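tool=predict chain=A
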Amino acid sequence: MIDVATTWQQVCAALAGGDYDTAFTVMAAAMQEARRPERARLALLAGSMHALYGDAALAEIGGALREARTLDPALRTDPLYLALMAELEARTHGDGAAPPPQAVRDAPDPLARFHAMCALALADKPQEALDLHVPSADLPEHLRWRLRSWEADAHEQLGQTAEAVNLYAEAAHLSSGMNRAVMLQEQAALLLQEGQPDAANAALNQARPLYPARPTPAEEEEHGLNLATWHYLRAQAQLNLGQPDAAHDMIREAARLEAQHGDPSYGVALVRGQVLTHLGQQEQALVAFQTALNLATEADRPYANHELGVALLDLDRPVEAREKLEAVLNEPEYPYLPEVLADVAECDYRLGRLQEAQLAAEQALAQGAVIPASLVLGSVALDYFQLDEALEHYGRVIREAAPASRDWITAHQMATDVMAQQGFPDPAAAYAHAQQALTHTPESDDWHGTLQDHLRKAEALMAQKGGSGGRMLN
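tool=predict ok
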């Protein structure tokens, strides 16, 4: 005689160890021997097992639920049945699916509440999902890390990134093997969004050794795609840490793995373009960004168009750049509209439309795009020979930009040049700006000779006034 509780305990033990084949073998053997009522309950539990495979197992989940209600029609009102039906509906219809009834959300069975939470998260109801009370300790071991992963996803949907990062870390702690690697990669992705490349790198360092050296043929495709994601994330981390050459190696490997195990992705193409931009390979970057645009979903298109616009600006093609950027301005939900407006201002400046450039840059500055808008306003002020105003704009960039960044260096170069045009009213300040800029300007750059001239003149004037060279700006 088959005991449902004992069988489920054996299945859960196998699932906790990652032995899915044994788990399904135990379940299949038990269903063959069980009587009709027990077989119905086992079919319902098999539906929970199939749900572990997500969207790839819609037919299997539906088949298990159909078998359960056929064997025992009374199960149609069972909380676990209703929760699994709600999850199946949500996987099929998204936010158009009917949510699980309140009685299911309050059910004594924690497994039913877990699947109800999954249904709510899949139906784009993250807050309702988080409102469900599902203690981790009440669930089988194989679902505990998945619970934290679902909670992390819900917090991420709500824009609560810090909470999501911590929950992915807990999910990683509760899981093992490839599941742990994937949770660490999810954590790394959010850390990159939060501007923490060092922490993201640390998470990726933990994830990489968890990949098997020789995956089985059945695992090879999934592991290959997960490894492509690992390289994609590593490329972003290295790029943010100022290591574009290493990032280039990583993103090329990500692209290779995608081609081998799946299809090219928008994300890899976009990051490849960003890496190539940092390496100064603008034409190749343009091709990568165009590829990203071709692969982009509607939600991703503004990001690709923005990158394309900036790449075209770097190639001094402002007319084409403006066309791409204007397309982004028509997307009110795009989070970087002030920066786009500043880039449009740069296009107008290069096209000689100084009034339009100034207006767009002032709007961008008011909306928070301080650095790019100030650079454009500085250029416009220089063209109008408003040197004090230009210096004010470049000073703002120096204060706000990251030290040694391209914008910071440009602002120091321009501040030095403006002071030279003013006749070095403050030679010590001019000297300091020139010194900072020279530190990060290669000798092959045309600016290098100009800066050296300004440095010598400022130094001579300081000597005349009894000053001494070498004072550095903070």
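DSSP finds 25 helices and no strands in the chain. The radius of gyration is 29 Å.
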